[in-house]
Structures are given as C-alpha cells and as structure tokens.
Amino acid sequence: MDVHVSCMVRGWDVRANTTGAMVLDAARRAETIGLDGLIAGDHVTFYGFGFDGLQTLTAVAAVTERITLKTAVYLLPLRHPMPVALQVAALSQLSLGRFVFGIGIGGEDPHEFTSCGIDPKTRGARTNEALEILSRVWYEDHVSFAGKHFQVDDVILYPKPLGHVPIFVGGRSDAALVRAGRYGDGYTGIWQSIERMRRCELVIADAAEAAGRARDSVELGMQFWTSIDNDRSAARAMVAQGMGSTYRLPFERFERYTPYGSAREVAEFIAKYVEAGARHVNLIPVQASPEENIERAMEVQDALRRF
After folding, report:
1. CA 173: distance to chain centroid?
2. How far is the C-alpha of 21 from the C-alpha of 34, rounded, in Å?
3. Most CB atoms closer than 10 Å: which of 48, 80, 123, 278?
4. Tell me: the pLDDT tens digits for 3-34?
5. Quick one: how far is CA 302 from the chain centroid?
6. For the chain, what are the domain ranges?
7. Burial class (CB in 10 A: 0-12, 13-18, 19+), 2
8. Spatial distance between the Cα atoms of 160 and 112, rounded to a whole number of angstroms
9. pTM value?
10. Angle in degrees, CA 155, 113, 293, rounded to 5
11. Cα dist from 3 to 19, 165, 193, 236, 305, whole Å
C-alpha cells in the first residue's frame, strides 16, 4: 500500500523525563530503520505546556540526512509571518529541502491565544494573510502586502528556501478545507470518518478550482493518535491517558477515530483511509519512550506496506 508514514517526535522537557538527547536519538533511529517521516507539533502555552515545532525540527534536521520533516501542525496565527518566513527558509536550507510546513489555527485552548495578545476569533483571517505573505517572500523580492492583521512594505528576505516549501493545511472546519484548496499542497485531517474525509476532498477540490488551481492540486492525508500493544486493552489505556491529559476531554469522544491494538490492527484501521484516498498518514503514538514511539510506528508502516 503506497502511503507516506510519519511519526510524532515530541519536544524535550527534562521535567517530563524527556531530554533533548532522547529526542534526537529517536530521530536518528527513525532514519536508520527507514521510517518515511517525522512530525513535530507546536504550541506556545497549551494548557500551560509549549513546544516549538520549528525549533524541534531544526535540531532533528542537524542529526539526520534523508528523512522527511514536517510540522503537524504549526500554529501560524500565533506569530507574525516575517520571522516565521525566515525560520522556515533557514530550516529548508539546513534540511536540504526535506521540510514540509504543516500549519493549522488551533483554538482548543483560547487562553493560549490571549496569552500571546491575540484574539482567538481572528486566527483564521490571520492565517490566510500570513500564507499570502509567506507564499510571496519565499520566492519574490520587494514584497508589499496590506491586510487587516499584517502589513509589509517592500520586503526582501534572504536566505530563501531551498526550492519550493510544501504547505500542508490541517483542520476539521470547512474554512480549513477552503484554506487547503487555496494555499495548500496537502491537507491533513484528524478525528474524522472515511465518509467525512471523502467529502473534505470534494470541498478542497472545489476551492482549488475557484482559486485557479487544478482540482487535484492538494494531497489528502490523515493524522491519528494511537498506541500499539498486542494487548488491546493495554493499548487503549495508553492512548486514552495520553489524549485525555492533552485535551482534557473524555477519550470516548475520540475513540471511534483512534486506532489501537497490535500493529496489524492499527494498520487495518488506517488502510481503509488509504484506500479512500489518503496519501500520507501521521501517527502520534503514546508509548513508553520517544524511541519506542518510533519502533511501533515503523511496525505500522511495515504492516501497511503488506496490504
């Protein structure tokens, strides 16, 4: 089964018993065993906890050579696009073009936005304006843009990225789908049925066509929280605890969209999405260590290849 599989590599926090060395060892291991890609999440203060996706992947890029690196997702509306443009360009060069810029608008914790001085209600509009600016300053000189939230005048930005930076848009709302169609090279869904994913593909295609792009411009994909263990009840307990502590919501709200169990069982769940059109899959494993996350994700990748 032809699908690109990436695994979450988490940010480091010594108080949570995860050091930078552990994260980088896991990244090296992922490349050594042949995992397709690594993803990094991003928050400033999500219920009090933060990790910078670009910072994480810059460190990972420095110790790897071939594996794809992707933010999934970077909270673009929390930042001004010009510093982000420079950081992404530098990471693109450091990684020799291996970086995919996955973006989203977040919002599950509105206090994260107000803590940064941003009205959560503006996050969609801020993101659209930021994408307009990024898509120009990476490839043009003397860029000017006058929006409601961001204004730039005659900007030149160097270094520029090493070639094209793919933009993958994440989210579940119709606005996210339109954003993917207008600006994205890819779309990554989460917590949705196969039927919903198929409907998303149509909305994205319509938005791409309306923007003067080909209907098939945007690659479809999915992101899954998971835990892998031959003891299915143990796997469920791990992923339920991980998601509950992160989102502070009952696991039952997410369970029907969350594969867990043996690698074969997880792959069987995901394979139906691949058959329906998903071309990339991001895994967020909840295991005992960063390196075990990588090992279990590789088991799922191998199982998917056998379908």
Report:
1. 16
2. 20
3. 278
4. 999 999 999 999 989 999 999 999 999 999 99
5. 21
6. 4-305
7. exposed
8. 30
9. 0.97
10. 95
11. 31, 20, 18, 25, 8
The Cα–Cα gap between 28 and 184 comes to 29
What backbone phi and psi angles, to 5 degrees, belong to 286?
-110, 95
Beta bridge partners of 283: 7, 224
232 close to 265: Cβ distance less than 8 angstroms: yes
The closest alpha carbon to 107, from 180, 44, 153, belongs to: 44
CA distance 272 to 209: 27
pLDDT in tens, 139-150: 999 999 999 999
Residue 141 CA to residue 108 CA, distance in Å, equals: 36
Distance CA 179, CA 74 (A): 15
Topology at the third CATH level for domain 4-305: TIM Barrel (3.20.20)
> Tens of pLDDT along 217-247?
999 999 999 999 999 999 999 999 999 999 9
**b/e string for 33-63 if b means 16 or more Cβ within 10 A?**
eebbbbbbbbbbebeeeebbbbebbbbbbee
Tokens found for residue 129: 């304006």
- DSSP lists the bridge partners of residue 74 as 103
User: For residue 166, which amino acid is it?
Assistant: P
